[in-house]
Amino acid sequence: MSIETAPTQPISQIVSIAPLLEQAKSASRKLAALNRNVALEQIAVALEQAMPQILEQNALDVALEREKGTSEALVDRLALHPKRFADMCQAVRDVAKLPDPLGRTLEGWTHANGMRMQKVTVPFGVIGMIYESRPNVTVDAAALCLKAGSSVVLRGSASALNSNRALVAAMQLGLERSGFPAGAIQLIDSADRATVTELLTARGKVDLVIPRGGAGLIAHVVENAKVPVIETGVGNCHLLIDASADCDMALNILINGKVQRPGVCNSLETLLVHADIAPIFLPMAVKALRDHGVEV
Known about the structure:
- It contains 11 helices and 8 strands.
- The chain has helices at 18-31, 36-49, 51-67, 72-78, 82-97, 136-147, 161-177, 193-200, 215-224, 247-259, 278-291, and strands at 105-110, 116-120, 126-130, 151-155, 185-187, 208-211, 237-241, 268-273.
């Protein structure tokens, strides 16, 4: 099976993402009434069938970053391989198994005049996702938004643009196979930051924006947003070693959290050690981290 990706447009030719947002808005009105789990399964199948093409495009992104001198830790965030790809597809199926988040009554009450009030979950509509590097976030975000009955507009990083084009093309094919509008998953096919600003200011076309990334991205979102935003932090993952901790277990957790994939956003960044156990644990930790090539 072949997957056709959209032709690359020079940034100078990209005038506006408004047509893309209109398609996402139109698609969002139809999603809640359709069987979203069927669509998620078809997306997983389409991704699996397109794996050779997607990995080829991902390899191109990886090669371009290495040519730029990007650190291997960051390159690792970008890279897909068969195991990661399989995990990504399984994650889509795992989302399909989750309970339906729509139509749930969260709370209710009755006024003195007899009027009954209920708070019921409904779709947001169109969700914009802004994120960096990891192409698996493209699939994770699309699956979660679709499960919640919302369209998604994806704006990944320039470093993953080839990967994201191929991933979105496959997911849109999965949508079409299941009778869903392909416009429910959209990719902003540009590295121009002006497209981010347009997304953040698209009142009436975008219902929520979720940014994931570094301090610069978060600051840009906060300063420019005119639509609702769920602001995320830049991250600072802690590990606390209490005085009662098992040192061998704590050491395994430390190495796993810091060494396994140091470039990802949930990599360990801060170690806190109780004073009573510090004389024992800290020398062990320093040696183990240095043995794994981590500067301490």
